[in-house]
Amino acid sequence: MSIKVDPGWWKTLFDEVYLLTDARSVCDEKLTRRETDVVCDLIPLEMHHRILDLCGGQGRHSMELSSRGFSSCTVLDYSQYLIDVGMEMASRSGCKVEFLQGDARETGLAGSSYDHVLILGNSIGYLPCSDDDSRILMEAYRLLKPGSWILVDVADGEQVRDSLNPNAWHEIDEDIVVCRTRQIEGGSVLAREVVVSKEKGLIRDQSYCIRYFEAETLRDMMIGAGFETVRVHRDFKLHDKEGDYGFMNRRMIVTAKKPEDE
Ligand SMILES: C[S@@+](CC[C@H](N)C(=O)[O-])C[C@H]1O[C@@H](n2cnc3c(N)ncnc32)[C@H](O)[C@@H]1O
């Protein structure tokens, strides 16, 4: 039986429970540092550049970049909860990062105003219509200055398709267990996530649907959005321990440039 998914799931899932269920990936400072090292290796970031961390969640990469001396990082995310968490963390640690709530398809930000757009941590493929992924890439294109770079970090679609574990579970601590049932359907992973606390009982029972991308598909989408010099870098395994990290297991990173003459 197919897992039923509310198409608006992505508007509500990214809350305090997400920061627990996905903590092994999105609250691990060492992992964030390794991911940031990869970003710095693959695109020509300079300290004064304006960097937009699109779908940036609680801004973990922007805060890491800011702590390395990058002076102009902006996080835009749909989740007001994550934006509030990020603002609080930035003010506690003294990081000068700007946080904005918005929709990556239509940010309302000024065109040609960023030197880099980063879309990290598998943050596309959530919206109900596949055209929405292209709309996010087209919006990134509009926001970039001519001659500047985008970097997109997503799950490697081939690996998702060939080796997704249909049943996965992990403990967060002594109290909380996360169980995921997954199935592949038409280029997407449908998943049901049940989170149980031994003390409090059921914390979450929610389903979601995430599209995965094959290298060629993502390359074509980048070219379709107007980018050139599209490079697909594969086989990134960034966690230091073996485990089932779902979409974060093996990554594919795509870099591309907005033409100089645009
Ligand atoms: C898996 S999280 C990753 C967040 C962050 N990039 C990281 O690596 O920690 C995906 C994020 O994408 C955001 N997101 C998804 N669709 C979005 C949209 N249309 N506009 C803005 N943010 C979106 C979610 O709110 C969520 O914070």
Unreliable runs, pLDDT <50, ≥5 residues?
A: none
Shape category: globular
Please state how the strands of the largest beta sheet are arranged side by side. 3-2-1-4-5-11-10
**Beta content:** 25-35%
Order of helices and strands: HHHEHEHEEHEHEEEEHEE
Helix content: 25-40%
Alpha carbon gyration radius: 18 Å
Strand tally: 11
Fill in the CATH topology of the domain at 18-156 and 214-257: Rossmann fold
Largest sheet: 7 strands, mixed
CATH superfamily of the domain at 18-156 and 214-257: Vaccinia Virus protein VP39
pLDDT averaged residue by residue: 94
| CATH arch. level architecture of the domain at 18-156 and 214-257 | 3-Layer(aba) Sandwich
Structural class: alpha/beta
Give a quick precis of the structure.
With 262 residues, the chain is an alpha/beta fold.
Secondary-structure map with pairings?
Elements: H1 16-21, H2 23-26, H3 29-42, E1 50-54, H4 60-67, E2 72-77, H5 80-93, E3 97-101, E4 114-119, H6 131-143, E5 144-155, H7 157-163, E6 167-171, E7 176-185, E8 188-197, E9 201-211, H8 215-224, E10 228-236, E11 251-257
Parallel strand pairs: 1-2, 1-4, 2-3, 4-5
Antiparallel strand pairs: 5-11, 6-7, 7-8, 8-9, 10-11
Helix pairs in contact: 3-4
Structure in words:
The chain is α/β, with parallel strands linked by helices. The chain has a domain at 18-156 and 214-257: Rossmann fold. Helices cover 29% and strands 33% of the residues. The protein has helices at residues 16-21, 23-26, 29-42, 60-67, 80-93, 131-143, 157-163, 215-224; strands at 50-54, 72-77, 97-101, 114-119, 144-155, 167-171, 176-185, 188-197, 201-211, 228-236, 251-257. The strands form two sheets. It has a seven-stranded mixed beta sheet, with helices on both faces. Helix 3 (29-42) packs across helix 4 (60-67). The longest helix is centred in the first third of the chain and has 14 residues, at 29-42. The structure holds S-adenosylmethionine (SAM). S-adenosylmethionine (SAM) binds next to loops.
